[in-house]
Amino acid sequence: MNSNIVENPSSILQSYVESPEKQSKLYRRTLVIVILSQIFGGAGLAAGITVGALLAQDMLGTDNFTGIPTALFTLGSAGAALLVGRLSQQYGRSLGLGLGFLMGGLGAVGVVAAALANSIILLLISLLVYGAGTATNLQARYAGTDLANAKQRATAASVAMVFTTFGAVAGPNLVNVTGDFALSIGVPSLAGPFLLAAAAYTLAGIVLLVLLRPDPLLVANAIAIYGKESEKISSVQETIPMGLEKRGITIGAVVMILTQIVMVAIMTMTPVHMKHHGHGLSEVGLVIGFHIGSMYLPSLITGILVDKIGRTAMAIASGVTLLIAGVVAATASADSMVVLIIALSLLGLGWNFGLISGSALIVDATTPSNRAKVQGSVDVLIALSGASGGALSGMVVAQSSYATLSFAGGLLSLMLIPVMLWLRHKK
User: Fold this and answer.
1) What predicted TM-score, i.e. pTM, was given to this entire model?
2) Greatest C-alpha distance within the chain
3) Residue 234 has pLDDT above 80, yes or no
4) CA–CA separation, 54 vs 19, rounded Å?
5) Confidence of residue 237 (pLDDT cuts 50, 70, 90)
6) Is 370 left (phi over 0), alpha (psi -120 to 50) or beta?
7) Measured in Å, how far apart are the chain's first and last C-alpha atoms?
């Protein structure tokens, strides 16, 4: 945290420290601004998920490395997560998140340029930079929790994710429209969704840089240091024992890492699997649209459940749901759109359960003075796990089958159950 702010809070921050009513208003305003940015951010991240593997397949001429795009922009998101977390801790959410989205937009422009030039090297570099948008989109969920109390944290994180749905579902279903537009201006059709991503990420960044003021994390830190004890602001003033802090961070990280590996691996190869069996881009977009909708749309209900029935129960529910998704995907006929939609929807839902329960655990185990830094570090691990899942998924399918990949993912997700029970027992 910026030392000048800690030692000499500005008059603006001080006014929030002294007014619970202003804190409450800022909490609600922050949620609105984050929601607006997430609508744009969702549209930006959908491009890479929907056509990233297909673009690489087209440019590389082989299936063996079709998981590489997902691996690259997920790897890029790892580095960006660390950067965004550190910037947010030092200067506030507005600067960290805003610059992260702008980097994602720059990467999307680079992908379009790579397609135009048919340059594999430029494509790989641009996908790394594009990953900053993915990292930022995920970290934005934390901005709403900075001023939330203990019973609001999962719900606050989930509100932002709900509205990611609007952009995230629209993106995959605009692949034909953006592809046609791209062709009309001389750009390969598969690069069309990245034109949308460039505009969407840039708008998300501008919204946060301009509107997210006063910064909720800086206000929360000022309250933690200078605020008086009261029920309304106790959530940002708590002192967490070191042992419980480390354990909570470990539990949250494990939940999100496992769910990320399983989701990314199966999701990455579904468009390639469908294309091999004669499905067109519009059908791929429909399936991925349902998948992304399931990743984000149930968030508000999930957040309420996490706050009401507990983090452990919902993390276990994540593992069970992902197992069912893997089995359905593995046994589904490639010709059946309905079953593929069900499988990918369950995959998104299981990920949703894991991400929100894990995020709540991380917030529970941190204070404003270290929260953004820890969140960024954990998101690095999540991104790296996703990169591994994406990179290995193409190789597994090339050497075996999509069914094998799906079964393996489902079985891996079951690890959440003994891990959660063991870690709960160690409390």
Assistant:
1) 0.78
2) 64
3) no
4) 53
5) very low
6) alpha
7) 30
